[in-house]
Amino acid sequence: MNRLCIFFIFLSTFVNGQTINRATFINPAGYYSLDSKTTVENGETYGYFGKIKVKLIDSNRIFVDFYVCKGAPSYNSGSFEDTLFYKNGIAAHTTTDDASCIITFNFNSPSGVEVEQKAKDLNDACGFGHAVIATGFYKKIEGGDSKTKGQ
Q1: Among 46, 52, 94, 103, which is disulfide-ready with 32 (CB 3.0 to 4.6 Å)?
Q2: pTM (2 decimals)?
């Protein structure tokens, strides 16, 4: 009986002393701007620029309004609006225009979202304009309350 009590005391101490690794929920709602170098010459913007607006629908879904442009001289661009599944700070967009396209949004940085675009041919990918690539860091410029902002 004494050994059994010691075992349960040990087990209780061991379990209570463990830290439980729980993912902290990150609310991605807000406005983001592509953090890239652009230059303006004679009224033309050279270099990539873009924006993302995110609304939190519930803890597992977000609405994303996305736009990216490669700038002068072509101003080729890409955009979409989509409701995405959201888990552990990550969401991904796919399209029927290009089965190889996947655009991943990683919201695990407090200062913004890391966007990664993968496709078979980045010159003609994701239904975007010629050679438009969404990859980059989009800096958070305004937090968003999913129940009030931008509705």
Answers
A1: 52
A2: 0.79
